[in-house]
């Protein structure tokens, strides 16, 4: 089975959403079919079972990174850490603000979410501009953890996020990209 093609065939493209000219890559069909969802998760599990790549904790970015990250952490018998939008976590937090096309956003992490020396896999559904993943990386590093890799289902390289993240020293792994599509 060509896993990349199989997964790509189950990603819905919604034209002109949330605004005209945007081709939104919707991953919800990947989650709706149990076989497709298992292929998706297993693709990540097999990679991170490798001792050289194995993290000590998985961190997921709000909100679709929670879906993939928590299941992946469970399958790897690791803890899961949510990186949330500002104001959603009830305990003491650290925060990181990043720029969006129109304004800025802030993400937070509990101060006891990771400890110095943790090897963290940072995961989201998609890499677009890279702002959220970069903010997540900075948060984890503030607490002394090392982000060993950023991972996502989809890369949209034309938006420059993956290049920006790699230039900042973050190794990336994605299952497929939509370059030029």
From TrEMBL:
Pathway: Purine metabolism; AMP biosynthesis via salvage pathway; AMP from adenine: step 1/1. It catalyses: AMP + diphosphate = 5-phospho-alpha-D-ribose 1-diphosphate + adenine. Keywords: Cytoplasm, Glycosyltransferase, Purine salvage, Transferase. InterPro entries: Ade_phspho_trans, PRTase-like, PRTase_dom, UPRTase/APRTase. It comes from the Bacteria. Gene3D superfamilies: 3.40.50.2020. GO terms for molecular function: adenine phosphoribosyltransferase activity. It is found in: Cytoplasm. Its main location: cytoplasm. Its EC number is 2.4.2.7. PANTHER family: ADENINE PHOSPHORIBOSYLTRANSFERASE. Homodimer. Catalyzes a salvage reaction resulting in the formation of AMP, that is energically less costly than de novo synthesis. Belongs to the purine/pyrimidine phosphoribosyltransferase family. This is Adenine phosphoribosyltransferase. The gene is apt.
